[in-house]
Each structure stands twice: as structure tokens, then as C-alpha cells.
């Protein structure tokens, strides 16, 4: 089941159901997995399609991207201008080879960065990957407020350090403080040293501006995003249309 179909089901039902073994399924009988014998006679267990579908519904709810995913897809991204076509092509190239790689979209506000990055997250969730969404200006202050309580701080930031795919929207939005510097390094360094983790970042800052602000942070982003950096400058703000 693709993301569009999943979102249609969410709209009909309000919220996504929890994965359950009590639902009837013609494939697994409600147990959540199927069993077959391999050529050597050993039992092979596989998750049933019904369980995968329900888990994907749950994944959308937990990602924080539910409402954005309803309107931000690769299919409805407007690519009428040359720079829009280039941006979409860059996103599609990334999706064709995303493993172990980051994606950075920086530049003008209202240029479709959030749309593209959200659509990319939708495709990765279609592939079965867990995704977490963080809006820098809205979500990070609550974590910064816990900086003097080591246990509370770790409880808040550890899930972001370890999730398979992390999407940071509006990275360094507003005035970037020393506290922003500290938490950005802590979070991105933890993900940088784990080759399997994927980080997608959108920001009004170009990667060069990030490097000028803090070379340690910018170089880590640049290294993991090599070949997947999108800088959009001089475009119109399409939110005003």
C-alpha cells in the first residue's frame, strides 16, 4: 500500500489503528505473520501484509508528518521553473540512492524545500523506514530547556539521535544562539558517526552559511550530504501565489 492510499485511510478513519493480531486477515488469519517451508524444510516466518500496512499507518502518526504528507507529494510538486525541475530531479536522484546518505536543501523561503523533503520522507516510509520530523524553531527549544538536567535532556534527544530517518525542517530558523550550536553539534555528530542513519535537512541557510557559522557542524553535514546538497537562491516565494 503506497503513502497516498494510507493517508486516504487515515482521513476516513480519523487515526491509524494500532497493529493488532485480533483483526481477521485472509492471509495470516489475524496472527500478523505467515509461515512457509523453505527448500531445506525449515520454517520461514514473514510479516503479513496486513501487519505491515497497519505499522505504516502508525509510523505516519508517530512521524509528526501526517498533515504535511497529505499535501506534499513528489507527484504534486510544481516543477514549472527550471530551478524547480532541477530541485525535483535532485530529490529523485537521492531517492534512487539514499542509503547512508544525507540530503540538504537550503535557500530561499517559500521555494518548496519543505514540500520536497516531506515528499522524500513519504517515499522512505513507503519503503518501510521509520521517520521522525523535527521543526527546529518549534521543537528544539523544549530540548534546549532541559540542558541543565542531563537525564531529561538525554531522554528528549536520544530518540532523534537514533531514529533511522530524521527530517529537520527550518534548521537554524531565527537567531542561531550558542545553545543552538551546542544542540546542533550534539545531534548531528551523533548521527554523523553512524553510517546507516539518514538525515534530511531543510533550511533558509545555504550549506556555505552553515560552514561559515560553525565549520564542525557544516563539514559534517557536507560530508554526509556529498552530491545531495540543494541550494535554492533567487527564487520566488511560491506561498504568496
Walkthrough of the structure:
The structure is a single chain. This protein has ten helices and seven strands. With 241 residues, the protein is of the alpha/beta class. A five-stranded parallel sheet has the order 4-5-6-3-7, sandwiched between helices. α8 (178-192) links the parallel β5 (165-169) and β6. The relative contact order is 0.14.
Contiguous uncertain segments of 5+ residues:
14-22, 237-241
N-C termini distance: 33 Å
Number of helices: 10
What share of the residues lie within helices?
40-55%
- Percentage of residues in strands: 5-15%
Name the average pLDDT. 81
Structural class: alpha/beta
Shape: globular
- Number of DSSP strands? 7
Radius of gyration equals 20 Å
- Strand line-up across the major sheet: 4-5-6-3-7
- SSE string, helix = H, strand = E? HEEHHHEHEHHEHEHHE
Biggest β-sheet strands, sense, barrel: 5 strands, parallel
Concise summary:
Helices cover 48% and strands 15% of the residues.
Topology overview:
Elements: H1 3-13, E1 33-37, E2 43-47, H2 49-63, H3 66-71, H4 82-96, E3 103-107, H5 113-126, E4 131-135, H6 136-144, H7 150-162, E5 165-169, H8 178-192, E6 198-203, H9 207-213, H10 215-224, E7 229-232
Parallel strand pairs: 3-6, 3-7, 4-5, 5-6
Antiparallel strand pairs: 1-2
Helix pairs in contact: 4-5, 7-8, 8-10, 9-10
Keywords:
single chain, 241 residues, alpha/beta, five-stranded parallel beta sheet, two-stranded antiparallel sheet, 48% helix, 15% strand, disordered C terminus
Amino acid at each position: 500500500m503506497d503513502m497516498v492510499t494510507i493517508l486516504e485511510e487515515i482521513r476516513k478513519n480519523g487515526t491509524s489503528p494500532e497493529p493488532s493480531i485480533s483483526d481477521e486477515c485472509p492471509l495470516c488469519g489475524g496472527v500478523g505473520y505467515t509461515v512457509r517451508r523453505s527448500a531445506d524444510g525449515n520454517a520461514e516466518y514473514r510479516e503479513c501484509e496486513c501487519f505491515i500496512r497497519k505499522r505504516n499507518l502508525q509510523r505516519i502518526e508517530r512521524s509528526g508528518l501526517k498533515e504535511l504528507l497529505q499535501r506534499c507529494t513528489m507527484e504534486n510538486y510544481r516543477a514549472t521553473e527550471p530551478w524547480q525541475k532541477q530541485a525535483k530531479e535532485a530529490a529523485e536522484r537521492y531517492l534512487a540512492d539514499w542509503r547512508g546518505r544525507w540530503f540538504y536543501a537550503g535557500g530561499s523561503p517559500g521555494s518548496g524545500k519543505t514540500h520536497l523533503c516531506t515528499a522524500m520522507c513519504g517515499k522512505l516510509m513507503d519503503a518501510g523506514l521509520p521517520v521522525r520530523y523535527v521543526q527546529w524553531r518549534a521543537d528544539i527549544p523544549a530540548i534546549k530547556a532541559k540542558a541543565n538536567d542531563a537525564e531529561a535532556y538525554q531522554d528528549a534527544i536520544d530518540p532523534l539521535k537514533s531514529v533511522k530517518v530524521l527530517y529537520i525542517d527550518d534548521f537554524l530558523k531565527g537567531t542561531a544562539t550558542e545553545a543552538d550550536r551546542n544542540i546542533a553539534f550534539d545531534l548531528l555528530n551523533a548521527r554523523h558517526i553512524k553510517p546507516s542513519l539518514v538525515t534530511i535537512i531543510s533550511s533558509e541557510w545555504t550549506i556555505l552559511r552553515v560552514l561559515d557559522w560553525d565549520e564542525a557542524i557544516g563539514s559534517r553535514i557536507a560530508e554526509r550530504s556529498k552530491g545531495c546538497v540543494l541550494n535554492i537562491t533567487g527564487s520566488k516565494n511560491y506561498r504568496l501565489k
